[in-house]
Design brief:
- The mean pLDDT is about 95.
- The chain contains six helices and seven strands.
- Strands 3-2-1-4-5-6-7 form a seven-stranded parallel sheet, with helices on both faces.
- It is globular and about 45 Å long.
- About 45% of the residues are buried.
- With about 200 residues, it is of the alpha/beta class.
- Helix 3 runs parallel beside helix 4.
């Protein structure tokens, strides 16, 4: 398969590329790294990317930013970071991918455990992640040509504990390589409309 991985230079993205590259052709893209540049917040940038790379068999997003802060300090602008970047960026990608995928192709988005297991300072992440999972479940029943869409909802990564560990006390961290298996399941499997949770 020809697989586009957006955010391939991040911790999850690198693990996904390592998992899939031995048996598939991988194309990498990102805002500041990868073979191609794309800004998921800009729908025109996504359209231009697909025009440049042509048809693919799978699209994976391992990208997206959200703001972490105490609820009392949040503003509408802070929430807009996650809404415009991680949520609508991935929705924009899925919308554009409909026309760029070969028949039977797949879209895999990234949400996160905070959609169902919230933490302090994580209200934006919880909101955005839940919205992504909801979008995936709904979009799956409308996609044409046998196209599939799923989301991956990982817990905190072992590789990220140095930076995020204090926010995730009591959570069972997982290695990125294990999370990458869920992306493999989404791309190489047959299910659609699924939220693959990786939390142990």
């Amino acid at each position: 398969m020809k697989i586009l991985v957006i955010g391939a230079n991040g911790t999850i993205g690198k693990a996904v590329v390592a998992e899939l590259s031995s048996r598939h052709e991988i194309i990498t893209a990102g805002r500041n790294s990868g073979e191609y540049r794309v800004d998921l917040k800009d729908a025109a940038s996504i359209t231009a990317l697909f025009k440049e790379i042509g048809k693919v068999d799978a699209v994976i997003s391992a990208a997206g930013n959200v703001h972490f802060a105490p609820l009392a300090e949040f503003s509408a602008d802070h929430y807009a970071i996650g809404i415009n970047d991680k949520l609508m960026g991935q929705v924009n990608l899925a919308l554009a991918a409909q026309g760029a995928l070969n028949d039977g192709g797949s879209i895999t988005l990234t949400s996160g455990i905070l959609s169902s297991d919230p933490i302090r300072f994580g209200s934006s992440a919880s909101m955005v992640n839940a919205a992504i999972d909801g979008f995936v479940r709904s979009a799956a029943i409308e996609l044409p040509r046998g196209l599939r869409i799923n989301s991956i909802s990982p817990t905190v990564l072992q590789e990220a504990l140095e930076n995020y560990g204090p926010y995730f006390r009591g959570f069972d961290a997982v290695p990125a390589a294990k999370v990458a298996l869920a992306y493999s399941k989404s791309v190489e499997g047959a299910q659609t409309g699924q939220v693959y949770t990786v939390n142990n």
